[in-house]
Fold this sequence. Notes:
Pathway: Amino-acid biosynthesis; L-tryptophan biosynthesis; L-tryptophan from chorismate: step 3/5. The protein is an alpha/beta fold.
Amino acid sequence: xxxxxxxxxxxxxxxxxxxxxxxxxxxxxxxxxxxxxxxxxxxxxxxxxxxxxxxxxxxxxxxxxxxxxxxxxxxxxxxxxxxxxxxxxxxxxxxxxxxxxxxxxxxxxxxxxxxxxxxxxxxxxxxxxxxxxxxxxxxxxxxxxxxxxxxxxxxxxxxxxxxxxxxxxxxxxxxxxxxxxxxxxxxxxxxxxxxxxxxxxxxxxxx
Length: 207
Ligand SMILES: O=C(O)c1ccccc1NCC(=O)[C@H](O)[C@H](O)COP(=O)(O)O
């Protein structure tokens, strides 16, 4: 039985972090994109990461950052993985000494195999709906756009929720799922019951 990995993204509060860890999240996402309502400063992120236990991966999300900003964050926050959510080149994502995910913003016409091939050093490809403001929009995309094999671990995101995640995992069989809006009561404010229900939905699909 495969255990689909779970990332909860866009945490801003200690209580939400504890809820995600207790529910069984494998990874926590912190948003370092200042226009986002889920943005956390490096100082705040450093406080939050003190609550993350061993074997839960801390992922830092960036959108077309200046390299100096990523380095500044890394001096303060013990990130274990980076996630690039804009139109960064592969070269811009490399060189920080950490594995990284590249987000593909899914819309009709995208050639995902070609997209993945242009990021050969990405540890995985994260599929998200194409939305204004880059991500975290709670929008699903057409899962039929996903080809059979990307040759890389694939992370499914975009509008996942406790209601649809079981069906999504059964249909797409991703390596991992990533959620933000679907476990929130307001942007950046997570709901412990929704997080627990989301994790249970994934486990139901895993069988
Ligand atoms: O969360 C944000 O505000 C955000 C801003 C800019 C780029 C990406 C952002 N979030 C990405 C995610 O939280 C997830 O990786 C993914 O997009 C799922 O979001 P959702 O559809 O809200 O579950």
